[in-house]
Amino acid sequence: MSQRRFTNAKIVILGGSAVGKTAFAVRYITKRYIGDYAPNTEMMYTHRLVGSRDDVTLEILDTAFQMPNDILEKHVKWADGFILMYSVTSRVSYQEACKLKETVFQHRGADLPIVLVSNKHDLLTARAVTDDECDNLAGEMDCPRFQISVAEGQDGVNEAMEELLVLIKRQLVKNLTTTPEHVAGLEKKSRLYNMKKAFKKRIVRSRSDTF
Q1: What's the pLDDT tens digit per position in 45-90?
Q2: How far apart are CA 21 and CA 120, in angstroms?
Q3: Is the pLDDT of residue 180 over 90?
Q4: Treating both helix axes as pointing N-terminal to C-terminal, what angle do 91-108 and 131-141 enclose, rounded to 10 degrees?
Q5: Average pLDDT, whole number, for the chain?
Q6: Quick one: average pLDDT of 152-178?
Q7: What is the pLDDT of residue 182?
Q8: Alpha-carbon dihedral sign for residues 124, 125, 131, 137
Q9: Which residues does UniProt call coiled coil (predicted)?
């Protein structure tokens, strides 16, 4: 991500097998739903957002479910933000999301842009994960959570991505304001302010003594 302006963002979509990661990415970029994809295939998508205050280029990495730990670690360190997905119809995918959360936190810490996406809410008759479990996982990550159906609508996909971009931009601002250069600049401004304040006090005191 750019160190000065929010011009690009690298996003990794993590989740178990058949949770809808590729469908999510394609739905967001093309506004179309395609249900059949080659399983366990990694894909990189580039998408440009135009028309907001900043033109932002997104690199969206749709990860394969089964990948070596060193590749997963590389992806986690590369990303500016994460979509962590599971399917509400698959308890195994929820358990996998819990494990992936631990991996992300291990390599990046807990203070990072991430959103939890529970997919396939058009299939609630086959529900295997409760709302409380979704809330608990989101609470552990201290992140927003979205319960959506990629198959049935665009809104939930857009809302999840928009929230993630807000978090990424907020993290960028936070990082810029905690760099040594920025802190040194603030300290310099503070010293100058205090010097000016003290100088004004001396002038006022001098005038008072004169009268």
Answers
A1: 999 998 656 689 999 999 998 889 999 999 999 999 999 999 999 9
A2: 11
A3: no
A4: 10
A5: 87
A6: 92
A7: 44
A8: negative
A9: none
Nearest one of 10, 28, 8, 11 to 20, comparing CA atoms: 28
Q: Is the pLDDT of residue 2 over 50?
A: no
Q: What is the 3-state secondary structure (H, E, C) of the chain?
A: CCCCCCCEEEEEEEECCCCCHHHHHHHHHHCCCCCCCCCCCCEEEEEEECCCCCCEEEEEEECCCCCCHHHHHHHHHHCCEEEEEEECCCHHHHHHHHHHHHHHHHHHCCCCCEEEEEECCCCHHHCCCCHHHHHHHHHHHCCCEEECCCCCCCHHHHHHHHHHHHHHHHHHHHHHCCCHHHHHHHHHHHHHHHHHHHHHHHHHHHHHHHC
d(Cα 176, Cα 93) in Å, to the nearest integer? 36
Mean pLDDT of the region 27-40: 89
User: Looking at this protein, which amino acid is placed at residue 151?
Assistant: A
Q: How far apart are CA 68 and CA 149, in angstroms?
A: 29
134, 116 contact by CB (below 8 A): yes
